[in-house]
Amino acid sequence: MNKYSRNQRVTGITKVLTENPNKTINLKTFTELFNAAKSTISEDIVIVRETLNELSMGRIETVAGAAGGVKYICGVSKQESRIFADEICKILIQKDRVIPGNFIYMTDIMYNPEIVHKAGVILASAFSELDIDYVVTVETKGIPLAYEVAKMLGVQLVIVRHDPKVTEGSTVSINYASGSSNRIQTMSLSRKSIKKGSKCVFIDDFMKAGGTAIGIINLLKEFESELLGIGVLVDNIESGHKLVEEYISIIQFTGINNEGIAELTPSEIFEKV
Amino acid sequence: MNKYSRNQRVTGITKVLTENPNKTINLKTFTELFNAAKSTISEDIVIVRETLNELSMGRIETVAGAAGGVKYICGVSKQESRIFADEICKILIQKDRVIPGNFIYMTDIMYNPEIVHKAGVILASAFSELDIDYVVTVETKGIPLAYEVAKMLGVQLVIVRHDPKVTEGSTVSINYASGSSNRIQTMSLSRKSIKKGSKCVFIDDFMKAGGTAIGIINLLKEFESELLGIGVLVDNIESGHKLVEEYISIIQFTGINNEGIAELTPSEIFEKV
Protein backbone atom coordinates (compact mmCIF):
# COMPACT_ATOMS: atom_id res chain seq x y z
CA MET A 1 0.00 0.00 0.00
CA ASN A 2 1.17 3.51 -0.83
CA LYS A 3 2.62 5.80 1.77
CA TYR A 4 1.75 9.47 1.39
CA SER A 5 3.70 12.50 2.55
CA ARG A 6 2.12 15.20 4.68
CA ASN A 7 1.92 17.48 1.61
CA GLN A 8 0.01 14.83 -0.26
CA ARG A 9 -2.31 14.07 2.64
CA VAL A 10 -3.28 17.72 3.17
CA THR A 11 -3.99 17.99 -0.58
CA GLY A 12 -6.37 15.02 -0.45
CA ILE A 13 -7.97 16.06 2.84
CA THR A 14 -8.58 19.60 1.53
CA LYS A 15 -10.22 18.25 -1.61
CA VAL A 16 -12.50 15.77 0.19
CA LEU A 17 -13.55 18.22 2.92
CA THR A 18 -14.23 21.23 0.69
CA GLU A 19 -16.15 19.08 -1.81
CA ASN A 20 -18.47 17.90 0.95
CA PRO A 21 -19.52 21.08 2.77
CA ASN A 22 -21.25 20.62 6.11
CA LYS A 23 -20.94 16.83 5.89
CA THR A 24 -19.20 15.12 8.77
CA ILE A 25 -16.30 13.03 7.48
CA ASN A 26 -15.05 10.37 9.86
CA LEU A 27 -11.29 10.33 10.39
CA LYS A 28 -11.39 6.68 9.38
CA THR A 29 -12.05 7.81 5.78
CA PHE A 30 -8.66 9.50 5.81
CA THR A 31 -6.72 6.90 7.80
CA GLU A 32 -7.86 4.32 5.20
CA LEU A 33 -7.33 6.56 2.18
CA PHE A 34 -3.78 7.41 3.23
CA ASN A 35 -2.87 4.32 5.23
CA ALA A 36 -1.91 6.57 8.14
CA ALA A 37 -2.44 6.71 11.90
CA LYS A 38 -5.31 8.73 13.37
CA SER A 39 -2.86 11.00 15.20
CA THR A 40 -1.10 11.77 11.91
CA ILE A 41 -4.40 12.63 10.21
CA SER A 42 -5.38 14.82 13.17
CA GLU A 43 -2.18 16.82 12.70
CA ASP A 44 -2.89 17.13 8.96
CA ILE A 45 -6.35 18.47 9.73
CA VAL A 46 -4.88 21.11 12.06
CA ILE A 47 -2.82 22.37 9.13
CA VAL A 48 -5.83 22.47 6.80
CA ARG A 49 -7.92 24.21 9.48
CA GLU A 50 -5.32 26.90 10.19
CA THR A 51 -4.67 27.55 6.51
CA LEU A 52 -8.34 27.98 5.61
CA ASN A 53 -8.76 30.30 8.62
CA GLU A 54 -5.80 32.41 7.65
CA LEU A 55 -6.94 32.69 4.03
CA SER A 56 -10.61 33.36 5.03
CA MET A 57 -11.65 30.36 2.95
CA GLY A 58 -14.12 28.88 5.41
CA ARG A 59 -13.48 26.74 8.47
CA ILE A 60 -13.10 23.16 9.67
CA GLU A 61 -15.22 22.06 12.64
CA THR A 62 -14.78 19.01 14.82
CA VAL A 63 -17.87 16.89 15.48
CA ALA A 64 -17.57 14.85 18.68
CA GLY A 65 -19.10 11.44 19.39
CA ALA A 66 -19.35 8.03 17.76
CA ALA A 67 -20.61 9.47 14.47
CA GLY A 68 -18.07 12.26 14.79
CA GLY A 69 -15.30 13.54 12.58
CA VAL A 70 -14.59 16.83 10.89
CA LYS A 71 -16.57 18.98 8.52
CA TYR A 72 -15.93 21.95 6.30
CA ILE A 73 -18.13 25.04 6.67
CA CYS A 74 -17.96 27.44 3.74
CA GLY A 75 -17.02 31.04 4.32
CA VAL A 76 -15.77 34.14 2.58
CA SER A 77 -14.29 37.39 3.89
CA LYS A 78 -16.42 40.54 4.05
CA GLN A 79 -13.97 42.21 1.74
CA GLU A 80 -14.29 39.53 -0.93
CA SER A 81 -18.09 39.56 -0.61
CA ARG A 82 -18.07 43.31 -1.15
CA ILE A 83 -15.81 43.03 -4.21
CA PHE A 84 -18.18 40.38 -5.59
CA ALA A 85 -21.29 42.54 -5.02
CA ASP A 86 -19.59 45.49 -6.72
CA GLU A 87 -18.66 43.33 -9.72
CA ILE A 88 -22.23 42.07 -10.14
CA CYS A 89 -23.55 45.65 -9.98
CA LYS A 90 -21.09 46.64 -12.71
CA ILE A 91 -22.29 43.79 -14.93
CA LEU A 92 -26.01 44.40 -14.37
CA ILE A 93 -25.74 48.16 -14.92
CA GLN A 94 -24.91 47.66 -18.62
CA LYS A 95 -27.47 49.59 -20.65
CA ASP A 96 -28.38 46.77 -23.06
CA ARG A 97 -29.63 44.73 -20.11
CA VAL A 98 -32.78 46.82 -19.76
CA ILE A 99 -35.49 44.92 -21.64
CA PRO A 100 -39.07 45.93 -22.56
CA GLY A 101 -41.17 46.23 -19.40
CA ASN A 102 -38.19 47.76 -17.54
CA PHE A 103 -36.82 44.42 -16.45
CA ILE A 104 -33.10 43.77 -16.13
CA TYR A 105 -31.85 40.79 -18.12
CA MET A 106 -29.99 38.72 -15.54
CA THR A 107 -30.56 35.17 -16.75
CA ASP A 108 -26.92 34.80 -17.81
CA ILE A 109 -25.77 35.84 -14.33
CA MET A 110 -28.07 33.32 -12.64
CA TYR A 111 -26.76 30.52 -14.90
CA ASN A 112 -23.06 31.37 -14.62
CA PRO A 113 -21.52 28.72 -12.31
CA GLU A 114 -18.60 30.93 -11.22
CA ILE A 115 -20.95 33.74 -10.14
CA VAL A 116 -23.59 31.43 -8.69
CA HIS A 117 -20.97 29.59 -6.64
CA LYS A 118 -19.69 32.82 -5.05
CA ALA A 119 -23.21 34.12 -4.39
CA GLY A 120 -24.11 30.72 -2.94
CA VAL A 121 -21.18 30.81 -0.52
CA ILE A 122 -22.15 34.33 0.65
CA LEU A 123 -25.80 33.36 1.26
CA ALA A 124 -24.97 29.96 2.79
CA SER A 125 -22.50 31.60 5.21
CA ALA A 126 -25.36 33.77 6.50
CA PHE A 127 -27.43 30.67 7.32
CA SER A 128 -24.71 28.26 8.43
CA GLU A 129 -25.70 28.51 12.14
CA LEU A 130 -29.38 27.69 11.55
CA ASP A 131 -29.25 23.88 11.34
CA ILE A 132 -31.82 23.65 8.56
CA ASP A 133 -33.21 20.61 6.75
CA TYR A 134 -34.00 21.96 3.27
CA VAL A 135 -33.26 24.84 0.93
CA VAL A 136 -36.45 25.70 -0.96
CA THR A 137 -36.82 27.63 -4.21
CA VAL A 138 -39.47 28.20 -6.88
CA GLU A 139 -38.68 27.27 -10.48
CA THR A 140 -36.79 28.37 -12.58
CA LYS A 141 -34.22 31.16 -12.45
CA GLY A 142 -33.21 30.76 -8.81
CA ILE A 143 -32.57 26.99 -9.02
CA PRO A 144 -28.78 27.03 -9.59
CA LEU A 145 -28.30 29.53 -6.73
CA ALA A 146 -30.57 27.56 -4.38
CA TYR A 147 -28.71 24.39 -5.37
CA GLU A 148 -25.36 25.94 -4.43
CA VAL A 149 -26.73 27.11 -1.07
CA ALA A 150 -28.17 23.62 -0.40
CA LYS A 151 -24.84 22.05 -1.33
CA MET A 152 -22.88 24.41 0.92
CA LEU A 153 -25.27 23.75 3.81
CA GLY A 154 -25.12 20.00 3.13
CA VAL A 155 -28.90 19.63 2.78
CA GLN A 156 -31.49 18.60 0.23
CA LEU A 157 -32.82 21.09 -2.34
CA VAL A 158 -36.59 21.39 -2.81
CA ILE A 159 -38.00 22.95 -5.97
CA VAL A 160 -41.56 24.24 -5.87
CA ARG A 161 -43.29 24.14 -9.26
CA HIS A 162 -46.02 26.24 -10.81
CA ASP A 163 -47.87 23.17 -12.11
CA PRO A 164 -47.96 19.69 -10.59
CA LYS A 165 -46.22 17.01 -12.68
CA VAL A 166 -47.30 13.38 -13.06
CA THR A 167 -43.77 12.17 -12.30
CA GLU A 168 -43.86 13.63 -8.80
CA GLY A 169 -46.79 11.70 -7.36
CA SER A 170 -49.41 13.42 -5.20
CA THR A 171 -48.82 17.11 -4.64
CA VAL A 172 -49.97 19.92 -2.41
CA SER A 173 -50.95 23.12 -4.24
CA ILE A 174 -51.67 26.56 -2.83
CA ASN A 175 -52.63 29.88 -4.39
CA TYR A 176 -50.77 33.06 -3.61
CA ALA A 177 -50.89 36.68 -4.68
CA SER A 178 -47.72 38.17 -6.08
CA GLY A 179 -47.19 41.21 -3.82
CA SER A 180 -46.40 43.61 -6.64
CA SER A 181 -49.09 42.87 -9.23
CA ASN A 182 -51.65 41.11 -7.01
CA ARG A 183 -51.96 38.43 -9.67
CA ILE A 184 -53.08 35.07 -8.25
CA GLN A 185 -50.63 32.25 -8.95
CA THR A 186 -50.33 28.62 -7.94
CA MET A 187 -47.39 26.78 -6.43
CA SER A 188 -47.27 23.04 -5.90
CA LEU A 189 -44.96 20.61 -4.24
CA SER A 190 -44.78 16.82 -4.14
CA ARG A 191 -46.06 15.29 -0.88
CA LYS A 192 -42.86 13.24 -0.68
CA SER A 193 -40.48 16.17 -0.80
CA ILE A 194 -40.56 17.55 2.75
CA LYS A 195 -40.80 15.70 6.07
CA LYS A 196 -43.10 17.06 8.77
CA GLY A 197 -41.49 19.44 11.24
CA SER A 198 -38.68 20.59 8.97
CA LYS A 199 -36.77 23.86 9.03
CA CYS A 200 -36.18 25.57 5.71
CA VAL A 201 -34.46 28.49 4.03
CA PHE A 202 -35.95 30.06 0.89
CA ILE A 203 -33.53 31.17 -1.85
CA ASP A 204 -34.48 33.09 -5.00
CA ASP A 205 -32.87 35.23 -7.68
CA PHE A 206 -34.98 38.33 -7.19
CA MET A 207 -37.39 39.74 -4.61
CA LYS A 208 -39.93 42.42 -5.32
CA ALA A 209 -42.65 42.74 -2.66
CA GLY A 210 -42.06 39.24 -1.31
CA GLY A 211 -45.36 37.64 -2.36
CA THR A 212 -43.56 34.46 -3.40
CA ALA A 213 -41.89 34.24 0.02
CA ILE A 214 -45.32 34.53 1.71
CA GLY A 215 -46.52 31.77 -0.62
CA ILE A 216 -43.61 29.57 0.47
CA ILE A 217 -44.37 30.20 4.16
CA ASN A 218 -47.97 29.10 3.58
CA LEU A 219 -46.97 26.11 1.48
CA LEU A 220 -44.53 24.97 4.21
CA LYS A 221 -47.37 25.19 6.76
CA GLU A 222 -49.12 22.44 4.74
CA PHE A 223 -46.04 20.31 5.50
CA GLU A 224 -46.07 21.43 9.17
CA SER A 225 -42.71 22.98 8.43
CA GLU A 226 -41.15 26.34 9.07
CA LEU A 227 -39.26 28.99 7.12
CA LEU A 228 -36.23 30.23 9.09
CA GLY A 229 -34.56 32.47 6.52
CA ILE A 230 -34.82 34.10 3.11
CA GLY A 231 -31.92 34.97 0.83
CA VAL A 232 -31.96 36.54 -2.63
CA LEU A 233 -29.34 37.81 -5.04
CA VAL A 234 -31.18 41.01 -5.99
CA ASP A 235 -33.62 42.91 -3.79
CA ASN A 236 -35.90 45.33 -5.65
CA ILE A 237 -36.44 48.22 -3.19
CA GLU A 238 -38.00 50.52 -5.78
CA SER A 239 -41.42 50.67 -4.16
CA GLY A 240 -40.27 50.21 -0.59
CA HIS A 241 -43.29 47.99 0.06
CA LYS A 242 -42.34 44.59 1.49
CA LEU A 243 -44.51 41.75 2.73
CA VAL A 244 -41.63 40.07 4.61
CA GLU A 245 -39.37 41.73 7.15
CA GLU A 246 -36.34 39.54 7.55
CA TYR A 247 -34.29 38.49 4.58
CA ILE A 248 -30.83 39.02 3.19
CA SER A 249 -29.77 40.11 -0.26
CA ILE A 250 -26.47 40.70 -2.01
CA ILE A 251 -27.54 43.58 -4.27
CA GLN A 252 -30.24 46.24 -4.12
CA PHE A 253 -32.06 47.50 -7.19
CA THR A 254 -33.71 50.92 -6.98
CA GLY A 255 -35.16 51.13 -10.48
CA ILE A 256 -34.29 52.34 -13.95
CA ASN A 257 -33.23 56.00 -14.00
CA ASN A 258 -34.12 58.74 -16.53
CA GLU A 259 -31.18 57.76 -18.73
CA GLY A 260 -32.56 54.24 -18.96
CA ILE A 261 -29.85 52.74 -16.76
CA ALA A 262 -30.48 50.36 -13.87
CA GLU A 263 -29.49 51.65 -10.43
CA LEU A 264 -27.85 49.00 -8.30
CA THR A 265 -25.78 48.99 -5.11
CA PRO A 266 -24.34 46.33 -2.82
CA SER A 267 -26.78 45.56 0.04
CA GLU A 268 -26.37 46.90 3.57
CA ILE A 269 -24.77 43.71 4.87
CA PHE A 270 -21.61 44.83 3.08
CA GLU A 271 -21.62 48.40 4.34
CA LYS A 272 -19.31 47.87 7.28
CA VAL A 273 -16.42 46.76 5.08
CA MET B 1 3.14 39.89 4.99
CA ASN B 2 2.58 36.32 6.08
CA LYS B 3 4.88 33.51 5.07
CA TYR B 4 3.22 30.19 4.39
CA SER B 5 4.67 26.71 4.69
CA ARG B 6 4.51 24.23 1.80
CA ASN B 7 1.71 22.34 3.63
CA GLN B 8 -0.29 25.52 3.86
CA ARG B 9 0.31 26.49 0.25
CA VAL B 10 -0.77 23.11 -1.15
CA THR B 11 -3.93 23.36 0.99
CA GLY B 12 -4.80 26.76 -0.48
CA ILE B 13 -3.82 25.79 -4.04
CA THR B 14 -5.93 22.61 -3.88
CA LYS B 15 -8.95 24.57 -2.67
CA VAL B 16 -8.68 27.32 -5.31
CA LEU B 17 -8.04 24.92 -8.21
CA THR B 18 -10.71 22.35 -7.37
CA GLU B 19 -13.29 25.08 -6.75
CA ASN B 20 -12.69 26.48 -10.25
CA PRO B 21 -12.83 23.46 -12.55
CA ASN B 22 -11.56 23.99 -16.10
CA LYS B 23 -10.67 27.62 -15.36
CA THR B 24 -7.07 28.63 -16.02
CA ILE B 25 -5.55 30.15 -12.89
CA ASN B 26 -2.44 32.22 -13.46
CA LEU B 27 0.48 31.37 -11.19
CA LYS B 28 0.51 35.05 -10.20
CA THR B 29 -2.71 34.43 -8.23
CA PHE B 30 -0.77 32.03 -6.03
CA THR B 31 2.53 33.96 -5.84
CA GLU B 32 0.51 36.94 -4.57
CA LEU B 33 -1.75 34.95 -2.26
CA PHE B 34 1.21 33.23 -0.59
CA ASN B 35 3.92 35.85 -1.09
CA ALA B 36 6.10 33.18 -2.68
CA ALA B 37 8.33 32.82 -5.74
CA LYS B 38 6.98 31.35 -8.96
CA SER B 39 9.42 28.43 -8.75
CA THR B 40 8.14 27.59 -5.26
CA ILE B 41 4.52 27.66 -6.44
CA SER B 42 5.44 25.45 -9.42
CA GLU B 43 6.86 22.88 -7.03
CA ASP B 44 3.69 23.07 -4.92
CA ILE B 45 1.58 22.45 -8.00
CA VAL B 46 3.60 19.35 -8.88
CA ILE B 47 2.70 17.93 -5.47
CA VAL B 48 -1.02 18.72 -5.94
CA ARG B 49 -0.94 17.24 -9.45
CA GLU B 50 0.74 14.00 -8.38
CA THR B 51 -1.53 13.57 -5.40
CA LEU B 52 -4.76 14.03 -7.37
CA ASN B 53 -3.46 11.59 -10.00
CA GLU B 54 -2.59 8.99 -7.43
CA LEU B 55 -5.96 9.32 -5.69
CA SER B 56 -7.90 9.37 -9.03
CA MET B 57 -9.41 12.70 -8.00
CA GLY B 58 -9.03 14.49 -11.35
CA ARG B 59 -5.97 16.11 -12.87
CA ILE B 60 -4.09 19.40 -13.12
CA GLU B 61 -3.21 20.66 -16.60
CA THR B 62 -0.70 23.33 -17.56
CA VAL B 63 -1.87 26.00 -19.99
CA ALA B 64 1.02 27.61 -21.85
CA GLY B 65 1.26 31.19 -23.13
CA ALA B 66 0.69 34.71 -21.84
CA ALA B 67 -2.78 33.91 -20.52
CA GLY B 68 -1.46 30.60 -19.22
CA GLY B 69 -1.42 28.95 -15.85
CA VAL B 70 -2.85 25.77 -14.43
CA LYS B 71 -6.32 24.32 -14.36
CA TYR B 72 -8.12 21.51 -12.62
CA ILE B 73 -10.03 18.95 -14.70
CA CYS B 74 -12.50 16.86 -12.72
CA GLY B 75 -12.24 13.11 -12.81
CA VAL B 76 -13.28 9.99 -10.99
CA SER B 77 -12.10 6.39 -11.18
CA LYS B 78 -14.14 3.79 -13.08
CA GLN B 79 -14.43 1.84 -9.87
CA GLU B 80 -15.93 4.75 -7.96
CA SER B 81 -18.29 5.51 -10.85
CA ARG B 82 -19.50 1.94 -10.80
CA ILE B 83 -20.02 1.99 -7.02
CA PHE B 84 -22.01 5.21 -7.46
CA ALA B 85 -24.20 3.74 -10.24
CA ASP B 86 -24.88 0.66 -8.11
CA GLU B 87 -25.86 2.83 -5.16
CA ILE B 88 -28.33 4.88 -7.22
CA CYS B 89 -29.90 1.68 -8.58
CA LYS B 90 -30.34 0.42 -5.02
CA ILE B 91 -32.09 3.66 -4.03
CA LEU B 92 -34.37 3.81 -7.09
CA ILE B 93 -35.38 0.16 -6.83
CA GLN B 94 -37.30 0.81 -3.58
CA LYS B 95 -40.87 -0.30 -4.11
CA ASP B 96 -42.57 2.84 -2.78
CA ARG B 97 -40.92 4.84 -5.56
CA VAL B 98 -43.26 3.46 -8.22
CA ILE B 99 -46.01 6.06 -8.60
CA PRO B 100 -49.30 5.97 -10.55
CA GLY B 101 -48.60 5.83 -14.27
CA ASN B 102 -45.60 3.53 -13.64
CA PHE B 103 -43.17 6.39 -13.16
CA ILE B 104 -40.28 6.16 -10.72
CA TYR B 105 -40.16 8.96 -8.19
CA MET B 106 -36.63 10.32 -8.50
CA THR B 107 -37.09 14.01 -7.72
CA ASP B 108 -35.26 13.66 -4.39
CA ILE B 109 -32.28 12.08 -6.17
CA MET B 110 -32.11 14.88 -8.72
CA TYR B 111 -32.20 17.52 -5.95
CA ASN B 112 -29.66 15.86 -3.63
CA PRO B 113 -26.42 17.86 -3.95
CA GLU B 114 -24.16 14.99 -2.88
CA ILE B 115 -25.61 12.66 -5.54
CA VAL B 116 -25.89 15.37 -8.22
CA HIS B 117 -22.27 16.38 -7.67
CA LYS B 118 -21.01 12.82 -8.19
CA ALA B 119 -23.22 12.28 -11.25
CA GLY B 120 -22.07 15.65 -12.59
CA VAL B 121 -18.41 14.68 -12.26
CA ILE B 122 -19.02 11.37 -14.09
CA LEU B 123 -20.86 13.06 -17.00
CA ALA B 124 -18.48 16.03 -17.18
CA SER B 125 -15.47 13.68 -17.33
CA ALA B 126 -16.97 12.09 -20.44
CA PHE B 127 -17.13 15.49 -22.18
CA SER B 128 -13.96 17.12 -20.85
CA GLU B 129 -12.10 16.76 -24.18
CA LEU B 130 -14.85 18.42 -26.26
CA ASP B 131 -14.05 22.12 -25.69
CA ILE B 132 -17.70 23.15 -25.49
CA ASP B 133 -19.25 26.58 -24.89
CA TYR B 134 -22.52 25.76 -23.12
CA VAL B 135 -24.29 23.03 -21.20
CA VAL B 136 -27.97 23.06 -22.17
CA THR B 137 -30.91 21.57 -20.29
CA VAL B 138 -34.71 21.84 -20.31
CA GLU B 139 -36.49 22.91 -17.12
CA THR B 140 -36.91 21.60 -14.41
CA LYS B 141 -35.68 18.32 -12.96
CA GLY B 142 -32.36 18.16 -14.79
CA ILE B 143 -31.25 21.68 -13.85
CA PRO B 144 -29.08 20.85 -10.81
CA LEU B 145 -27.30 18.07 -12.73
CA ALA B 146 -26.77 20.27 -15.79
CA TYR B 147 -25.51 23.03 -13.52
CA GLU B 148 -22.90 20.69 -11.98
CA VAL B 149 -21.75 19.56 -15.42
CA ALA B 150 -21.49 23.20 -16.57
CA LYS B 151 -19.52 24.07 -13.45
CA MET B 152 -17.14 21.14 -13.89
CA LEU B 153 -16.59 22.05 -17.55
CA GLY B 154 -16.14 25.73 -16.62
CA VAL B 155 -18.88 26.94 -18.99
CA GLN B 156 -22.20 28.74 -18.89
CA LEU B 157 -25.45 26.86 -18.22
CA VAL B 158 -28.41 27.46 -20.57
CA ILE B 159 -31.92 26.52 -19.46
CA VAL B 160 -34.56 26.05 -22.15
CA ARG B 161 -38.07 26.83 -20.94
CA HIS B 162 -41.49 25.54 -21.94
CA ASP B 163 -42.98 29.05 -22.02
CA PRO B 164 -41.20 32.30 -22.84
CA LYS B 165 -40.89 34.71 -19.89
CA VAL B 166 -41.09 38.52 -20.05
CA THR B 167 -37.90 38.86 -18.00
CA GLU B 168 -35.84 37.13 -20.69
CA GLY B 169 -36.39 39.54 -23.60
CA SER B 170 -37.05 38.23 -27.10
CA THR B 171 -37.07 34.47 -27.43
CA VAL B 172 -36.91 31.78 -30.08
CA SER B 173 -39.55 29.07 -29.78
CA ILE B 174 -39.82 25.75 -31.58
CA ASN B 175 -42.29 22.88 -31.45
CA TYR B 176 -41.16 19.33 -31.01
CA ALA B 177 -42.80 15.92 -30.67
CA SER B 178 -41.95 13.89 -27.61
CA GLY B 179 -40.71 10.62 -29.11
CA SER B 180 -42.65 8.36 -26.76
CA SER B 181 -46.13 9.92 -26.75
CA ASN B 182 -45.92 12.00 -29.95
CA ARG B 183 -47.41 14.91 -28.03
CA ILE B 184 -46.42 18.29 -29.51
CA GLN B 185 -44.64 20.55 -27.04
CA THR B 186 -42.94 23.93 -27.21
CA MET B 187 -39.47 24.94 -26.05
CA SER B 188 -38.20 28.48 -26.01
CA LEU B 189 -34.93 30.18 -25.34
CA SER B 190 -33.90 33.81 -24.94
CA ARG B 191 -32.16 35.29 -28.00
CA LYS B 192 -29.38 36.55 -25.74
CA SER B 193 -28.51 33.18 -24.23
CA ILE B 194 -26.37 31.53 -26.94
CA LYS B 195 -23.81 33.09 -29.27
CA LYS B 196 -23.79 32.00 -32.93
CA GLY B 197 -21.48 29.13 -33.77
CA SER B 198 -21.41 27.60 -30.31
CA LYS B 199 -20.79 24.01 -29.31
CA CYS B 200 -23.09 22.52 -26.70
CA VAL B 201 -23.74 19.46 -24.57
CA PHE B 202 -27.30 18.55 -23.52
CA ILE B 203 -27.81 17.18 -20.00
CA ASP B 204 -31.07 15.82 -18.60
CA ASP B 205 -32.33 13.64 -15.77
CA PHE B 206 -34.09 11.03 -17.89
CA MET B 207 -34.25 9.97 -21.53
CA LYS B 208 -37.07 7.98 -23.05
CA ALA B 209 -37.12 8.02 -26.88
CA GLY B 210 -34.99 11.18 -27.09
CA GLY B 211 -37.62 13.55 -28.51
CA THR B 212 -36.43 16.32 -26.23
CA ALA B 213 -32.86 15.86 -27.46
CA ILE B 214 -34.07 16.18 -31.07
CA GLY B 215 -35.92 19.35 -30.04
CA ILE B 216 -32.69 20.75 -28.55
CA ILE B 217 -30.76 19.96 -31.75
CA ASN B 218 -33.37 21.88 -33.76
CA LEU B 219 -33.50 24.76 -31.31
CA LEU B 220 -29.71 25.07 -31.43
CA LYS B 221 -29.88 25.26 -35.24
CA GLU B 222 -31.88 28.49 -34.78
CA PHE B 223 -28.79 29.82 -32.97
CA GLU B 224 -26.50 28.40 -35.69
CA SER B 225 -25.06 26.21 -32.97
CA GLU B 226 -24.30 22.56 -32.64
CA LEU B 227 -24.95 19.74 -30.17
CA LEU B 228 -21.79 17.69 -29.54
CA GLY B 229 -22.94 15.40 -26.78
CA ILE B 230 -25.86 14.17 -24.69
CA GLY B 231 -25.68 12.90 -21.12
CA VAL B 232 -28.47 11.70 -18.83
CA LEU B 233 -28.66 10.11 -15.40
CA VAL B 234 -31.28 7.50 -16.33
CA ASP B 235 -31.82 5.99 -19.77
CA ASN B 236 -35.19 4.30 -20.27
CA ILE B 237 -34.48 1.38 -22.64
CA GLU B 238 -37.87 -0.26 -22.10
CA SER B 239 -39.09 0.18 -25.67
CA GLY B 240 -35.70 0.06 -27.35
CA HIS B 241 -36.81 2.82 -29.73
CA LYS B 242 -34.41 5.79 -29.75
CA LEU B 243 -34.38 8.91 -31.91
CA VAL B 244 -30.75 9.72 -31.06
CA GLU B 245 -27.82 7.39 -31.43
CA GLU B 246 -24.99 8.81 -29.40
CA TYR B 247 -25.45 9.66 -25.76
CA ILE B 248 -24.18 8.51 -22.41
CA SER B 249 -26.12 7.54 -19.31
CA ILE B 250 -25.23 6.38 -15.82
CA ILE B 251 -28.17 4.04 -15.24
CA GLN B 252 -30.49 2.04 -17.47
CA PHE B 253 -34.14 1.48 -16.69
CA THR B 254 -35.86 -1.49 -18.30
CA GLY B 255 -39.35 -1.05 -16.86
CA ILE B 256 -41.45 -2.08 -13.89
CA ASN B 257 -41.57 -5.88 -13.44
CA ASN B 258 -44.52 -8.10 -12.51
CA GLU B 259 -43.85 -7.61 -8.81
CA GLY B 260 -44.18 -3.84 -9.30
CA ILE B 261 -40.47 -3.20 -8.82
CA ALA B 262 -38.36 -1.01 -11.09
CA GLU B 263 -35.57 -2.80 -12.96
CA LEU B 264 -32.38 -0.79 -13.08
CA THR B 265 -28.76 -1.53 -13.90
CA PRO B 266 -25.58 0.53 -14.29
CA SER B 267 -25.07 1.56 -17.94
CA GLU B 268 -22.61 -0.15 -20.29
CA ILE B 269 -19.92 2.47 -19.81
CA PHE B 270 -19.26 0.85 -16.44
CA GLU B 271 -19.14 -2.73 -17.67
CA LYS B 272 -15.41 -2.94 -18.10
CA VAL B 273 -14.75 -2.31 -14.42
Count of individual helical segments of chain A: 8
Strand residue percentage of chain A = 25-35%
Most extensive interface between two protein chains, with residue counts: A-B, 60 and 59 residues
Task: Give average pLDDT of chain A, whole number.
Answer: 94
Instruction: Describe the global form of chain A.
Output: globular
Q: Major sheet of chain A, described briefly?
A: 6 strands, mixed
Explain the overall architecture.
- The structure is a homodimer of 273-residue chains.
- With 273 residues, the first copy, chain A, is α/β, with parallel strands linked by helices.
- Chain A folds into two domains: 6-73, Winged helix-like DNA-binding domain superfamily/Winged helix DNA-binding domain (Arc Repressor Mutant, subunit A, Orthogonal Bundle), CATH 1.10.10; 78-270, Rossmann fold.
- The first copy, chain A, has helices at residues 6-18, 27-34, 38-54, 78-92, 107-110, 113-127, 143-153, 211-222, and strands at residues 59-63, 69-73, 98-99, 103-104, 134-138, 156-160, 171-177, 184-190, 199-207, 226-236, 248-256, 262-266.
- In chain A, the strands form four sheets. A six-stranded mixed β-sheet of chain A has the order 6-5-9-10-11-12. Chain A has a two-stranded antiparallel sheet with strand order 1-2. Chain A has a two-stranded antiparallel sheet with strand order 3-4.
- In chain A, a hairpin with a 5-residue loop joins strand 11 (248-256) and strand 12.
- The longest helix of chain A is centred in the first third of the chain and has 17 residues, at 38-54.
- Chain A is globular and about 65 Å long.
- The mean pLDDT of chain A is 94.
- Chains A and B meet through helix 1, helix 3, helix 6, helix 7 and strand 6 of A and helix 1, helix 3, helix 6, helix 7 and strand 6 of B.
- Chains A, B: This is Pur operon repressor.
- Chains A, B: Homodimer.
- Chains A, B: InterPro entries: PRTase-like, PRTase_dom, Pur/Pyrimidine_PRTase, PuR_N, PurR_Bsub, WH-like_DNA-bd_sf, WH_DNA-bd_sf.
